[in-house]
Amino acid sequence: MKKQQEKTRAVKEIARRAREKIPSLWVWDDLESRLNFATDRSAALAVPDLVVLPSREEELLRFMELIQTFPVPLTPQGARTGMSGGAVPVRGGIAISMLRMRKILSVQRHNRLVIVHPGVITGHLHRSLEKKGFFYPPDPASLAICTLGGNIAEDAGGPRAVKYGVTHDYVLGLRVLLSDGRRLSLGGETLKDVAGYRLASLFTGSEGTLGIITRATLRILPLPQTRLLLLCLFPSMASALTSVQEILFRETPSAIEFMDRQATRLVRGHLPLANTDNAESLLLIEIDGIEAMVNHTLDIVSRICHKNAAISLLPAKGPREADKLWDIRRNLSPALYRIAPTKLNHDIVVPLGNILSLVERLEEISKDYNTTIASFGHVGDGNLHVNLMTNRNNPASYENALKGVDVLFNDVLSLHGSISGEHGIGLAKRAWLPRQLSKTTLSAMRQVKDCFDPIGIMNPGKIFLQGGNYGKKTSQKNT
What we know:
alpha+beta, seven-stranded antiparallel beta sheet, 20% strand, five-stranded antiparallel beta sheet, Alpha-Beta Plaits, 4 domains
């Protein structure tokens, strides 16, 4: 109680000083505003005591200097589209929203890079670059609303990861503010850089627990000459996944998206095909490059799919139809609520050769725990979004689903996989992280956090179940 009272007084004083000394900084302390920054797309909710929205790095730097005598929790936020609770301010304190820092600062086509603020919407960057003949490959499903800063904090992926990789493959440099007010410039504008530790890579995927990203330098690529999307329907999940393995043995499409039986049934009525009743699985295969190579790859992919009993193959008729098919995929996650009101969503990943084994185990888990499971995702890099559909208000159903999640993670680890491929650990997976990582590894990670965030105020409560310095006495002057 005493600590809470001290924090409340500190936050009120911070708000007063910020309004007085940094008048251009947006400072919101009314309940309605704070509620808008209390959650992400996970089920977690925690209301911050204060919300600040800087529009420039200098404002944020001055704010960080101002709070040094008030060590309260700080939670960096983007568009809050994350699925693991990473942007939820579980210890209260201050939510630092980067939504006003949304400028594309520089596009350097000759250097193949772009410099951006963290609040730039990912889809906006895509459209801006494509007008100039370039593209930024990472394409998370929420690209229409998610921010680049959030993508970097979570190391977001997307369908094109099979050919082009994920966010960390494109981060050349970062500017970061630490909790004690220090500013770091990490990496730079060169495609190669081995001058010391690659700290920009360390901050990519750190979930806001090390510092606040204020600027990013990202690698971009020339826009492919041709891009073709192929819709493939299969009579079974095994035939679809066998096709995937054979395709990847021969070629590297830019994307291969998979839908299992439950997911395919949800989207059948939206597909531009008449005969879909017998379809039990679906692949979206995108091929890009020069036209001759695209046609060559399409021929190989088509032969493989037909060999594996594909019901139908339909190339999209131009970009508009391709966009409609991608919209079906991107809107699949919310469509799952037609099955049940509660979704336990986990973005597991396994080696490519173990995907079929994983999907077979999902069928068994579904039967064993009487829980409908719908899975889909970036099968081309081994990453599936597994959704256990249940009802939080039905204790028996919900308990069964939770048991199913526990078994799922054990199976993923036995298949040499990871409990998270792109959503991060956040709050949702803290309890299972010690199963994947040893005590020694977790201890080393905590030491890294304590090095950059010595008083433990950067997004506390995330990733680790316990440990860290938040709330502890330290020798720091500002405590």
